[in-house]
Structures are given as structure tokens and as C-alpha cells.
Amino acid sequence: MSVARQLRRYRVELLAVLAMVAVAVPVGGYIVSKQRLRFPWEQVYTLRAEFASAQAVTPGQGQNVTVAGVTVGEISKVQLRNGRALVTMEMSPDQLRAVYADARMLLRPKTGLNDMSIELDPGTPAAGRLEEDDVLPAANTTPNVHPDEVLAALDVDTRAYLSTLLNAGGRGLRGRGADLRAVLRASAPAFARTRRITAALADRRAQLRRLVGNLRVLSQAVAGQDEDLAELISAGNATFGALASQEGALGESVRRLPGTLTEAEAALRASGRFARRLRPALDELAPAVDALAPALRDVRPLLRDAEPILREEIRPLVRAARPLARDLRPALGDLDAVTPDLTSAFRVLVRVVNELAYNPPGEEEGYLFWLAWFSHNANSILSIEDAHGVAWRGQVMGSCSTYQDLAATNPAFALLVGVPACPS
After folding, report:
1. Taking the domains of the chain in order of start, what are their residue ranges?
2. I need a labelling partner for 302 at 20 to 30 A (CA). Which of 16, 111, 318, 368 fits?
3. Which helix (H) or strand (E) holds 352?
4. Separation between Cα atoms, residue 397 and residue 393, nearest integer Å
5. Contact yes or no for 347/242 (Cβ under 8 A)
6. What is the pLDDT of residue 36?
7. Which residues make beta-bridge pairs with 84?
């Protein structure tokens, strides 16, 4: 029996088989494409990262890598290297072109059965692109933390107390979900205030750290300026002495200051009307100011003509006045000798004000910024007073040998202490 005859005999069955094959091939290809099968023509690149723990990570099970919830690759290999899990991932360049050196990875479960996935933050281009031979360090990755790991860190008593707390809490809160929700809602303002308090404490800690740093910089700067510091203290002493000698005048000035401020306030209030009327006049002067530049250009010939007069007439007059100026110098010298302390005091005062008002560039602040802190600390030190005046707060410390020597040389000291300062 020939082949052609057999084909004609079974042509219906053969056509049915061919039809099933024609339908099965695209259906099978579609199913295989959805089963994470990579075809040879698909491009991928390899990314490797270290994790402190890769528990429940199983390559080949479709555990994927996502960015903002979008799958960009899958886990292909896990191996141990230097006591850490080295996870290899195959990334799709169509979904994510590159991963950078400051990338962050979080290993987390997608389901309660620990179907793991890696949540990826690809980083920024400024940090540099990760090549296939590079490994993202464990400092940039976060493993999944299981509840049993947390409970394993607790001792037996703590686990028993926690179990009792959860059981008792479950019985106590049974059927009282609405009450618990109301308590949490009522606690929201307290939590908000607590957050502000903790933020203020954190800011206070940062300010204290900056204060210590500034004190260190100030101490280093002053350490090499002993002579200048001594001169500053001496000049400050002279300044305060000069101010103390003018105590009456200063007191009179302070007494007159309120009236002066009142008059100044009234003058400023009255000048408001003048300022409102001055604005139209200034608007009218605008054309004259605009025409001033051409006028200055036009006056240039006059200045050129006046230059010979200044050279030939004014300059001889100045030269002739020099003997008079030389005769005037002794008188000015005598006048300068009368007020040397005041001159030195104001020179030092200008230097002190410049030093205090200087604000260095950068995050560091000047001395005026910390003056409020100094005033606050001084107020705290001098916050105790009685009928005899202000008392300085302080602390006296000494060793046992010091107390024994003082008691031996001065019996009144032992009576003052009343009890032995150190055990015998």
C-alpha cells in the first residue's frame, strides 16, 4: 500500500492532528512565556548584592525584583561568601536600564508563606553605575526580620511576660475595638505634642554639639593668641574703668533715654506725613536725576579747564599752609595726650564689637549667636539669692587625703564637717 493511498485514507485524522498542533504551538508558546522562560534573544544584565540573611530566598521559584511595585528582574542564584548571602539577580534592561552605587535593597515577603521578593531603589546617577563585576555591599541592603528572630532575642522571663500581656490584652480588648479606636483618636494630639517635644530635644542636642564645637574652635584660636588676649583684657579693664569714671553721666543719659525715645517716636510719627508728601516731590525729581548723567558729561570741559587752576593756584596755597599745620601739630599732640585712655578704650571696643559681630561663613555661628546661651547659663548660675544678695552655685570636690590633712591642720574644719569625710 503506497504512502499517497494511506494519506488519502487517513486524511481526516491527519488534518485533525495538524489543526491541533497548529493551535497547540502558539498556546504553548504563550504559556511558556508567562512561566519566566527566557528566550535566547532576550537581553539581561546581572546584578549582585550582599545580604546579612537570605532566609526563604529560593532561586527558580519566580521570586522577583521590583521597583515601585513593577517587576524589573528576578532572583537567579544565592550563594554563601564570607559569612554573608550573595544574591545574584537577572535584570531586564527594558524595564530598568541601570542600577547605581547608592542603591538600596529590601528583602521582604509578598505572602504569608514567605514568598520573597526584593524591593529595589536604583539610586542616583551621581553615585556611578554598578557594573556586572560589582557587588552592592550589605550596608545598602536590609534583610527580612522574622517575628521568631525578635522573640528569640528575649529571655525566658520576658517572653513569659509578653505572652501574659498579649493574652490578657486580648481578653481585655475583646469586643471593645470601638473604645480602643476612640482612645487612639483622643491620643493623637498628645502624640503630636510628644513628637514636637522630641524634635525640640533633638534640635537642642544638635545645638549643644555645635556649641561644643564652637568652644573648641574658640579655645584653639585663643590658645595661640596669649599676648593679644592679655592686651584685650587689659584694654577691657581700661575701658570699664573709663566707663566707671563716667557713671554719673551714664546714669543721667539712661534717665533721659525714655524721654528721648518718646520724642523720637513722636518725630518719626510726624515724619510719616512728610514722607507721604515727599514721594510726589521725589517723583518729580526723577527726570532731573535722569538728566544728571548728560550734565556730568557736559561738565567735563569745565573740569579740564579747572585742572590748571588747581595745580597752579590751589596747590601753592596748600604748600604755604604747611608751616601753620606743623605749628598746629604740638597743640593736637597735647590734646591727644589728654584723652589716651579714651582713645585706647574705643579702639579696643571697636575690636571687641568687630570680633563679636563677625559671623564666619558656613554652618558655624558668630559670638553674638551664642551670647543668648551664655546669658541663660549665667542666669542659671546666679539664680539663687537670699537677703544677703546673690549666691553663686558651685561644687567643691576633694580626695579623702585632702579632707584628712585639712582636719589635721585645722580642727575647726572637722567641727564644720561634723562627720568623718572618709571611712576609717
Report:
1. 1-35, 45-150, 240-351
2. 318
3. helix 340-357
4. 14
5. no
6. 61
7. 81
